[in-house]
Amino acid sequence: MTARTMRHRTRRLAAAGAALTVLGAVTACGADLGTADLPPTSGELVEQAMDEGEVHWEAAKPLKQMQPVIDLFEKKYPGIDVQYTEAKAPEQASRLSVEQAAGRVSIDVANAVGQTVVPSAKMADTIPWSAYGVAADNIFNKNFVYTWAAPKVWVYNTERVPSSDLPRTWDDLLDARWSGGAVAADSPAQFMAVWDLAPSMGQDKAVTWAEQFAARRPHYTPTVNEAEALIESGQVAIGTSLVNLVLQARAKGAPVAIAPLSPTSASEAYLYVPKGAPHPAAAALLTSFLSTEEAQRVLGKTYNSRIPSSTDCSDPDESPTLKAMCDAGLKWFPTPALGDYQRLSAFSVKAQKALGTDIS
């Protein structure tokens, strides 16, 4: 029986912020772990990975969602045992930075998303992804592999809001009908990333909008998961969420749907091999495998596949996530460079202050 591990930890915004602060300090120093000694071809990579025999993968997804693609990998590469741990990106990055500083890394495949992308870039090993079959469009900042998306969306309770009354623009949410706790929003302001990414929006307009939105007294939650829960239960009419959360809820019969409120961000999530990974060949093999169309189809069944980084509905049946966004008529924008993530980190603080959720 393959060994599996799961960790369920709850972190409030303050804890996540503290973890990232520590991370920034620790990654500035530490052991010189060098670059993994990997072969130049996929065939040789498989041989080296088989010799290693195991790979430790951590990501912010439940094991149940990842199990089908893990089974597919282990069937294709028998003899390589995938040990999976569910871990939120900030806590994973903070722990990994400490391990690298000590020269004792336990993670082979790590997950970077949102505010953890910039610090993770310093921890990622240099891997010849193209040589291992990863398409150039799916390689980010040389060392990251774009593996799935978790687009931010506005979601509504279908029993509380008729479709004719739905907000379709960000300014529609400033209408008096959405006052007094009718709307849930995640206090870290992740839902506002598109204001910095869309050319027609911008940070100055974002601050003005956020101050007006705050005046409507929304119901703030520490995470999008908690906002989604309030929408599903009907405690609020509409709120911020992620596409995968609402599709999972709908599959279970919850009265929720994606609101046609646009634009939003693609919210790309990346996998990478940390410097000092104990099983680098198996890590590179698993990561490159997860980028294949074969694996993407399996990931798509649990709403964890890629979507085009920019709005593209030419093939909406490519994945359930993409189809849901296209059906809702959404437009979305990518985060195309590391500098965009650096700017977003500063913008999130500005947005939180305007919303009144800043804790610094």
Explain briefly what this protein structure is.
The protein has 360 residues and is of the alpha/beta class. Helices cover 39% and strands 15% of the residues.
Task: Describe the overall structure.
The chain has 13 helices and 13 strands. By secondary structure, the protein is an alpha/beta fold. The strands form four sheets. The chain has a five-stranded mixed sheet, with helices on one face. Strands 3-12-5-4 form a four-stranded antiparallel sheet. It has a two-stranded parallel sheet with strand order 1-2. The longest helix is centred in the C-terminal third of the chain and has 18 residues, at 338-355. It is globular.
Secondary structure: elements and pairs:
Layout: H1 13-26, H2 42-52, E1 54-59, H3 63-76, E2 81-86, H4 89-102, E3 110-113, H5 117-123, E4 139-140, E5 144-149, E6 152-157, E7 183-186, H6 194-197, H7 203-214, E8 219-221, H8 224-233, E9 238-242, H9 243-251, E10 256-258, E11 264-265, E12 268-272, H10 280-290, H11 293-300, H12 320-327, E13 332-333, H13 338-355
Parallel strand pairs: 1-2, 7-8, 7-9, 11-13
Antiparallel strand pairs: 3-12, 4-5, 5-12, 6-9, 6-10
Helix pairs in contact: 1-4, 2-10, 7-13
Most strands sheet: 5 strands, mixed
Over all CA atoms, what is the radius of gyration? 20 Å
Total helical elements:
13
The tally of beta strands, per DSSP, is: 13
Share of helical residues:
25-40%
Global morphology? globular
Give the distance, in angstroms, between the N- and C-terminal Cα atoms: 47 Å
Unreliable spans are: 1-29
Percent of residues in beta strands? 15-25%
